[in-house]
Amino acid sequence: MFAIAKTKATRGIWSAAPQHPGTPARGMVTVDVMAAGICGTDYHIYNWDSWSAGRVPTPMVIGHEFVGHISAIGEGVSGYALGDRVSAECHIACGTCHACRTGNAHICENTSIIGVDRPGAFAEQVEVPAANLWRVPDAIPDVHAAVFDPVGNAMHMVATAKVTAKHVLIVGGGPIGLFAAAIAKAHGARSVTVQEPNSARADIARSLGLDLVVDPRDPANRARILTLTEGRGPEVILEVSGNGAALNAALDIAAPGAVVALLGIPSGPVELDLGAKVVMKGISLLGITGRRMYETWYQVEAFMLKHPDLMDKVITHVLPAIDFHRGFELMDEGSCGKIVLDFRQIEQRLSA
Ligand code: NAD
Ligand code: ZN
Fold this sequence. Notes:
- The protein is α/β, with parallel strands linked by helices and 352 residues long.
- The protein is 33% helix and 23% strand.
- Strands 3, 5, 6, 9, 10, 17 and 18 form a 7-stranded mixed beta sheet that branches.
- The chain is globular, with a radius of gyration of 20 Å.
- β14, α9 and β15 form a beta-alpha-beta unit.
- The longest helix has 14 residues, at 148-161.
- Zinc ion binds at residues 93-94, 97, 99-100, 108, 110.
């Protein structure tokens, strides 16, 4: 079958022809992939940074944000039928560790990730545990359903930080920051500001009807943010850039008692004056990873049903899956919001 894989332990990504998954194992299903989103994690694996080189065995079919139709069902699976349209949580939690048994499977210490630790969804077919499936309502189109996972990252962050009636600053307008901005607005934030240096992404943020979009290099920002936030500074900061300097600047402008949720992953250790910037200001720092299983998925479904227009604004490119190289080039250029690969016509296109 056609697949997109890390076949060599060096920068790049290639097409591959692995075997179809075959009869699913007990508790598993096979999904015929219709559409799949390119995640920042896929881009890390493409770049073969130190994290991916240390974690991902090659060859590995990548991709973990997807929607498709169930085409085979393993023994012991109930509640699903052939043809059901599904997405799936890509974190396969162990179910037995302390985190899993206390309702926190998103921080399971034994997590295996689809497209990182086991064959992924950038393929005609992917095998996943039935326990991880999410049935998609007909009203949500494939292109939106393909990105339940990153919208879930954004949703988990916004819901955990509790933005209603708060002045919110989002640091980083990549796909997850943009989804977070749209969700924060929908959740009744008093104001939403996005800080993003890339002009193409800043333009996408502006299209979401936010209160303020700023460039971190502009010295006038501080005054503009303080004016918007009634002189207090943002009461909620969502850090989605992974940039340590940006986090430091955000803590400087944070209102006393602010909640600062950290989702961006810095490339290395970050230096922080904890005493002055966190302790003495009474700041709450929240680490955010994955999505709550499955509370976040219900929240994302509701958001997608209510705000398809906002989904369309953040998803800027839908490319035929065989043009995947173009998708990674667009991420190199940063001239994109979310990119979705369309696998629907893959067989016809390959034989054309
Ligand atoms: P991305 O890299 O596309 O977006 C980051 C954005 O931050 C970019 O648009 C970049 O221009 C911007 N940026 C850089 N410097 C900035 C500054 N000084 N101020 C403001 N913005 C700045 O990534 P993404 O896919 O949107 O993901 C965001 C982050 O979240 C990444 O670090 C990613 O690795 C991480 N991530 C975390 C999880 C998790 O579970 N915690 C899951 C997925 C992704
Ligand atoms: Zn576990």
